[in-house]
Amino acid sequence: MVDISHKKRSMREATARSTIRLSPKTFKLLSAQENAKGEVLNTARIAGVMAAKRCADLIPMCHPLHLDYVGIDFDIDEAAHTITVRATCRCAHTTGVEMEALTACSIAALTIYDMCKAADKGIVIENTQLEFKSGGKSGVWKATDTALDTDNHPPVQETP
Predict the structure, then answer these.
(1) Which of 4, 21, 83, 146 is the most exposed place for a label (fewest CB within 10 A)?
(2) pTM of the model
(3) What does the DSSP 8-state code read for residue 1?
(4) Residues 64 and 1 sit within 8 Å (Cβ to Cβ)
(5) Apex CA 136: angle with CA 101 and CA 140, to 5°?
(6) Is 127 helix (H, G, I), strand (E, B) or coil?
(7) CB of 83 within 8 A of CB of 74?
């Protein structure tokens, strides 16, 4: 691991996002009444929070952090049959929380896939990336709008 003992403690925040594209049939499975595995989004939210807290156990060179906040939000686009997962992590530490946010976001997206895969193996998880980070020596960083553009992707095809 990198030596961070000389760095000053400061408030750190990071937000990551990922998009899940579903077929129209699979998109309907997001409610507990339709999905045999239960309520998809709340389960994905819990999985994302748990993943952020275990990031250092999953990624070898990550420092273990005492997170002050982990939030997982979902933007649902019914017309496009997509879910955008946003994960935000905060803490006061000597290193950033980008990896925790990216891990939380990724695991939440994978949980949605897992809970819907029986209906369709063609679910697509895409555009996982950091949107925002603040704190530390490098200060504030925001992704450009063009990096976040997902409107040019074809719809997911239903699997037979």
Answers:
(1) 146
(2) 0.87
(3) -
(4) no
(5) 70
(6) strand
(7) yes
CA distance linking residue 93 with residue 118, whole number of Å: 41
61 by Cβ neighbours in 10 Å (0-12 / 13-18 / 19+) ranks as exposed
Per-residue pLDDT of 26-71, as tens digits, reads: 888 786 666 777 789 999 999 999 999 999 999 999 999 999 999 9
User: Both tokens of residue 16?
Assistant: 């990551």
Respond yes or no: is residue 57 known to be catalytic: no
Q: Which DSSP string corresponds to 74-116?
A: EEEETTTTEEEEEEEEEEEESS--HHHHHHHHHHHHHHHHHHH
Catalytic residue among 57, 77, 114, 145: 114
Spans of all domains in the chain: 10-133
Architecture of domain 10-133: 2-Layer Sandwich (3.30)
- Separation of alpha carbons 143 and 145, rounded Å: 7
Angle at 63 between CA 140 and CA 44, to 5 degrees: 75
CA distance 104 to 17: 9
Reply yes or no on whether the pLDDT at 130 is more than 90.
Answer: yes
How many angstroms separate the CA atoms of 117 and 111, rounded? 10
Q: Locate 22 and state its tokens.
A: 């579903």
Q: If we measure between CA atoms, which residue out of 96, 95, 91, 42 comes closest to residue 69?
A: 91
